[in-house]
Amino acid sequence: MRNINDYVEKYYNEPFEPYMVQIRKNNIIKQLHKYRHTNILEIGCGLSPLFLDFQEFKNIVIVEPGEDFVVNARSLSENKCDIQIFQGFFEDYVDKLKKIAIEFDFIVCSSLIHEIDNPQKMLAGIRDVANENTIIHINVPNAQSFHRILAKEMGMIENIHEQSSQMKLMQRQRTYDIDLLKQEITDSGLVVIDSGSYFIKPFTHNQLQRCLDEKIIDEEVLDGLVKMEKYLPGMGAEIYVNCKKGRDHLCTKS
Question: What is the pTM of this model?
Fold first, then answer.
């Protein structure tokens, strides 16, 4: 069972994560620009809700279990009527989301399904609140990331799917490669329409933070590492899929 309070406390101190959050968000925005995004559902917003960097929407609904994250998001949104924020686990809000007068064009489930006990339950809920035209964006850390392959070749880990100490600290349950992620998605009745990876990460979060702190590298280097993925496709730090509801699961909302 995920301890959300422990997770939030450790999240504040996780090295390099603020940089990774922005890199991740930039990729989400890139995906949003590819598809209709009038009404957006964000599952888990952390400390940096999507609306801070992306305002091209009519409505955005956020479901976030962490109390600190919700307080922060509500403060940042200044009670704007086009932003609704619910505190709780997404699975507990599925019925409510199905009944609100918003048809979601785009659902963001970012850096989440690898952390939870039952991804299929969450994916079933996402499928239930989606319609036949909804684009669902899901991203997770990549087992085939450059830095994990390097760690294996150095003898630091036995295989690329092995959990690191940082993963255990942050309650991360599993590691996905792109094939495993696609299988998880298709098992839930969703259909993958495109996928990819982003940000060539040469070292661990701790090592990258140290490089930044000691001015060995700067943010221009990080920008270059984002662009490097085109030379090393599939080896980015994180992977994503964009998917839709399978025809066998299309239904009318109640």
Answer: 0.91
